[in-house]
User: Which sequence fits this backbone?
């Protein structure tokens, strides 16, 4: 029965223990990827994959990524909500991998709301 | 849905919403039978019988926010389009098992797609839920069990994006090896051979 090889597991462990000293403390930013049926069908998974890569690269301890269900705005999916502490949550619409990267680098890391992709403030 | 792995992600999200602590996903591909079967089993809160009877009806849903639910009915339609079928076995409190079959060679059958991305995402997003993935391809198979993984990688946080990226890559490589039909060793030999050319 094939499994992940021992080398795979060892490598994962080596590369991660040094890179990430447990994400503790309070989150400053929360990013929600809406993954209902509508979001998934519209392309939420590549958005989430891009976000995972950006997160891995940025290696910031104060950012949380969560998924949620449909929020009732199926026609603007994939939607992503970015909540930065002490600011209004912004819902982004029609996201794709590149837009996600831009929102992550500009809004999440630098605080510049990307109003071109924004659907609404909540 | 363009990929079956997206249907799987969707049904697994349902299982998570149902409060499951263990979700097992099995993909079985059989060439002699020309069949592809997907089974998603969870130990969540299950469904009442009247909901199961009406899985084809997109206007029946357990959600309370709106009156349409598309996930299961989309999968049912996809399976039936490919000379397959869907069965849902569930009872309140006992969890749910969804089985969808497809004729493997049917022209309308969507490709399985990026199963590694689906799994990586589920594992990263839900560190308190365990996942078992079994992929059978005729007489070969691949198994991933996050309970074992957590034991082997003691102390490593699977919800960490760095870990999740590596894990997704490893799964992707393993599934590629499974599809290419050889053990790790044979695949490496093949790669080496190509490098020499």
Assistant:
């Amino acid at each position: 029965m094939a499994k992940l090889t021992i080398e795979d597991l060892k490598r994962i462990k080596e590369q991660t223990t040094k890179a990430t000293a447990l994400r503790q403390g309070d989150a400053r930013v929360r990013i929600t990827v809406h993954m209902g049926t509508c979001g998934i069908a519209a392309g939420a998974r590549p958005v989430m994959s891009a976000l995972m890569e950006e997160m891995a690269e940025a290696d910031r301890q104060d950012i949380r990524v969560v998924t949620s269900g449909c929020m009732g705005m199926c026609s603007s999916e994939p939607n992503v909500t970015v909540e930065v502490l002490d600011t209004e949550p912004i819902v982004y619409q029609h996201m794709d991998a590149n837009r996600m990267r831009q929102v992550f680098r500009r809004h999440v890391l630098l605080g510049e709301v990307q109003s071109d992709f924004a659907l609404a403030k909540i | 849905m363009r990929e079956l792995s997206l249907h799987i992600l969707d049904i697994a999200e349902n299982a998570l919403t149902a409060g499951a602590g263990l979700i097992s996903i099995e993909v079985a591909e059989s060439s002699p039978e020309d069949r592809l079967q997907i089974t998603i089993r969870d130990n969540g809160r299950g469904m009442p019988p009247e909901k199961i009877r009406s899985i084809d009806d997109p206007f029946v849903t357990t959600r309370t926010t709106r009156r349409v639910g598309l996930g299961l009915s989309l999968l049912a339609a996809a399976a039936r389009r490919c000379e397959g079928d869907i069965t849902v076995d569930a009872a309140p409190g006992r969890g749910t098992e969804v089985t969808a079959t497809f004729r493997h060679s049917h022209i309308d059958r969507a490709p399985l797609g990026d199963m590694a991305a689906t799994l990586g995402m589920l594992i990263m997003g839900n560190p308190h839920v365990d996942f078992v993935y079994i992929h059978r391809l005729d007489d070969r198979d691949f198994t991933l069990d996050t309970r074992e993984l957590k034991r082997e990688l003691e102390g490593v946080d699977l919800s960490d994006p760095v870990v999740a990226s590596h894990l997704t890559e490893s799964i992707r490589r393993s599934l590629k090896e499974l599809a290419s039909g050889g053990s790790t060793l044979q695949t490496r030999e093949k790669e080496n051979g190509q490098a020499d050319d």
About this structure: Chain A has a mean pLDDT of 87.
